[in-house]
Design brief:
single chain, alpha+beta, five-stranded antiparallel sheet, 5 strands, 12% strand
Length: 206
């Protein structure tokens, strides 16, 4: 009996399998972490590109704030051709509306985010892309646009005031494949990545 016990204790049959079973979850977790990190970097880059694209669309489109020109021209001097003033409250627009008592141009916001076809499908032909075609996670609720008086232009400019436009993401979280629920990473927010651009003609081209 003692001899059998000693023999059993020295028997290493199956040791490799046991060691493999111990190490396998660690290897799997490490591999999944690398995959998730790559996914996060892709989503991060897509967000940056979407913000840049959205800024360009906003620069050549009607403002998301209805009657924005009147707000920025409200304290202009009566003499035309003179320099514009540099201080006035900025206007912030989200899917919830615009500040300074201005109405939101919802159709314009939808075109910027969803494109001319109103859906997130970058393969659709004959349509102008939206931000969500570059990053499918983006919705109108994830976009914030701020209009500032730039100090450029002149009083009485036919195309309206020249404004600075900043667009950034808000409340946009990473969408992890494996580790989100496992490690509680569902609520990690993608950085806002604000992009600022100067407006052009402020006429609707999208």
């Amino acid at each position: 009996m003692v001899r059998r016990a000693i023999s059993f204790r020295r028997n290493e049959d199956g040791a490799t399998l046991v060691e493999g079973l111990i190490v396998f979850p660690i290897i799997l977790l490490t591999f999944a972490t690398f995959v998730e990190f790559g996914v996060a970097m892709v989503q991060w880059n897509q967000t940056v590109k979407a913000m840049q694209y959205g800024a360009r669309m906003l620069a050549v489109s009607d403002p998301l704030a209805v009657d924005l020109a009147s707000h920025f021209e409200s304290d202009y001097p009566a003499t035309e051709g003179g320099p514009v003033l540099g201080t006035i409250a900025p206007v912030v627009c989200t899917s919830d509306g615009c500040t300074q008592g201005l109405d939101l141009n919802e159709a314009g916001l939808n075109r910027v985010v969803l494109g001319s076809d109103g859906i997130c499908d970058p393969s659709a032909e004959g349509t102008r892309l939206g931000m969500c075609d570059l990053n499918g996670l983006i919705t109108t609720d994830n976009v914030q646009v701020t209009y500032y008086r730039s100090g450029l232009g002149y009083v009485g400019r036919p195309s309206g005031p020249v404004v600075s436009i900043t667009i950034e993401s808000r409340n946009l979280n990473f969408d992890f494949f494996f580790l989100g629920a496992l490690l509680g990473l569902e609520n990690i927010t993608i950085p806002a990545h604000p992009v600022t651009i100067t407006s052009e003609d402020l006429s609707d081209t999208i």
